[in-house]
Design brief:
4 copies of one chain form a homotetramer.
Chain A lengths: L4 H7 L2 H5 L3 E6 L2 E7 L13 H16 L6 E10 L8 E12 L2 E10 L2 E12 L7
Helix pairs in contact in A: 1-3
């Protein structure tokens, strides 16, 4: 695949790398990432901690919104948890730009496991201010 | 502090423990947790990965909504990122029940660092179905 | 077009009818509605009141999620306002099911005016309890 | 009560006036408004149309975020519908600033009827650009 600014950003993303997140594809306002749930990602209900489901969605979102150019950060987002997952499950997150207007954008991210939707995320992006605040 | 079902749940929360999250207080629909940002939590923009900010908010949310009794899970939530943080920063998340209606609830979580708000999260909870789906 | 439960529901929707909302299409988890902004829909900033932009989106959402069968209500939703509109503008809202899981569903609604996106709405639906609460 | 920029804005708010919304109080990042549900506000499920519940919440939000000074618009918001209401019910919405950061703000709005919470809204505000886009 062609390299994009998202690939450069992902190369510097220590957090995603440390979790074993792989960038499968990025370009043209879209991105796909993958992460395997480990035993260290399980919460007190014996399910994947919601933070890790968000993590994989947010990483796909970041790669999608930086796949075209100017440095863009997450201003926020909403996640709906639809199905629990467990250690050993492989989560795939596919992010796609829905609309941009001025410096703002909206991206939809679907997280799946074995072809079933486990979460839906909608991210709000913002092209970054010079002082680094979203 | 008095033990609550949230304390038992947190004791089994491998994910939060592995990240060094501490449960400072839980009870009566409220909870406070704390986490120190490490070098492994930094994203490609040299800021704390949004997934970790969500993680600390979501953990406080889970402890608050399980502090009173029946097993409750996150159905979803919205996070707004207001200020970037860095490695070495200590994040504190305070969660508080806003309203419950039937099996649904809404909780507000504020994440602060050195007294400044870095994120605001609003979680939607659901008392769990017998089959484990939210 | 084929009649669906959404058409029956819309026929009883006094609120939408009183505002001149037209149901253009409904079926298979999708719906399209249209409303003309009148002088009575303008807020103190001389733009369409956000409540009316939400109204047209929410009506499309209701028609989409009732287009297939069991009585379904809005549990909630998030709207992003992207462009202001004015009196005389014609808003079209297209709603489409994104995913359903158990009694919950997620629908995406795009509101446009002259081919430009003015708002994006994501609705959370719930098949209704016998006691009428969402 | 002391007049604020919110009062001036509300005086020009044709939409809210046409619906009989009353501004009960505004100042210091807070506002309270009230609206009586009429027969023209009922949806196809014989409940208040969600658009009108949003309307009253959004109006309180607008008054709260314009109560202190610079012209501020809604960038978006999330509403959770908790209890249905009917014709004749009187809805009261109380909005309160939660946090501001730069040109962005977050406001919480609770909609009640007879002392019971019927909806919770969280609004995202933005001090307006010179070209009028949020």
């Amino acid at each position: 695949m062609a390299r994009t600014p998202a690939h450069d950003m992902f190369d510097r993303d220590t957090a995603s790398k440390a979790l074993g997140i792989e960038l499968l594809d990025a370009g043209n306002g879209q991105a796909t990432v993958r992460m395997t749930i480990t035993g260290d990602m399980i919460n007190g209900h014996a399910m994947t901690h919601g933070g890790y489901v968000f993590m994989v969605a947010d990483t796909a979102f970041a790669c999608a919104c930086n796949s075209k150019g100017p440095v863009t950060v997450a201003a926020g987002g909403d996640i709906a948890f639809l199905r629990p997952t467990r250690a050993g499950d492989v989560l795939t997150a596919y992010a796609k730009e829905r609309v941009t207007q001025g410096r703002s954008g909206i991206y939809d991210v679907t997280v799946t496991c074995d072809g079933e939707v486990v979460a839906e995320f909608r991210g709000r992006s913002r092209v970054i201010d010079r002082d680094g605040t979203p």
